[in-house]
Amino acid sequence: MSNATRPALRRVPTPVAALAFLLLFAVHAVLLVGRKRPDWRSDALLAFDAGFYSHVSNFALSYVLVAGIGYMWLMLGVRMRLVWTLGAACAAANVVYELWIPILNTPDPRDAVYGLTGTALAMGVLLTIDRSGMRANPACPGT
Question: What is the number of structural domains in the chain?
């Protein structure tokens, strides 16, 4: 099979992994919506941390960015080492921006912690999917 007709996805997620990924992605999207729409907010999260929705954007955006790109990369056959590099870059960007760059931002260590938590959660999900939720694409020979 020539490269022109070779399928782009070297690996495909199992149905359980795909469903779990989409569900978690949707949960983080709902958390982001809750930042602007009080009727979408979780009372349990507010009881845990009254300021949760002030910082949720760092948490959810870090998760969505790392999980979205990482999931695509895993399907394309990118090595987990590069996915770890993505997570480290996102974590570093969170810390640097929230602690030392005051452009359009008030330095806030708590925002950095929320961003780091979102990144760590995304990396945990990707590691689990990489280890037990992906299989070789049967339509892609040589994988």
Answer: 1
Q: Which residues pair with 37 in a beta bridge?
A: none
Q: Number of H helices and number of E strands within the chain?
A: 5, 2
Sign of the CA dihedral running 102, 96, 70, 7: positive
User: Which residue range(s) make up the domain with 131?
Assistant: 11-136
Residue 99 lies in a domain: yes
For residue 8, give the DSSP letter: S
For residue 104, the model assigns a pLDDT of: 81
- How far apart are the C-alpha atoms of 62 and 114, rounded to whole Å? 9
For residue 141, what pLDDT is reported? Answer: 74
Contact 65, 23 (CB under 8 A): no
In a domain, 142, yes or no: no
Region 21-31: mean pLDDT is 94
Rama region for 70: left / alpha / beta (φ>0; ψ in -120 to 50; rest) = alpha
The CB density around residue 45, as the number of other CB atoms within 10 Å, is 14
Indicate the pTM of the whole model. 0.89
